[in-house]
Fold this protein.
Amino acid sequence: MGTIQSVFHLPGRQAEGFLESLFTLMGIKLQVPDHSTLSRRLSKLSVQLPVIPKDKAVHVVVDSTGVKVYGEGEWKVRTHGVGKRRTWRKLHLGVDEGSGEILAAVVTTNDLADCEVLPDLLEQIDQPIEQVSGDGGYDTKGCYDTISQLGAKAIIPPRSNAKMQQPHPHSPPHPRDENLRRP
């Protein structure tokens, strides 16, 4: 019942009535706890979420998604129709592949590409980074350089029009070129 109160923002008596109605509709023959008994027990409940220390390097997965902006833009569309310029924001995330924990987040306007935001994302992460995975939006020389400077491995699928760089004959091949050479 405490979860129902929290999720639906209901006072104790309303949560009790809500659950009784649900149980009746579902044909479940269970007693719903009394709200006063539950509130006494919940006041003594102490919930502590453990912080899991990160002592090993993490595998970071980066990506972004569009977030629609409400406000004047929506009113204008309803009143005057769809215009040429639609505003929205991009939410860029860096997630620990193992735990699913969000390690970094950046919100930008829609005119910034994913590859431009990667250094800001990786700068927010305190743990050592073993590997960075992303989609084709991160397939740039700059992203590979940023990831290499951290001593991490880049796992980025090449774009369909990707071409090899022509390195100097005495310099080692760029990590992006090595990625393109893989089948």
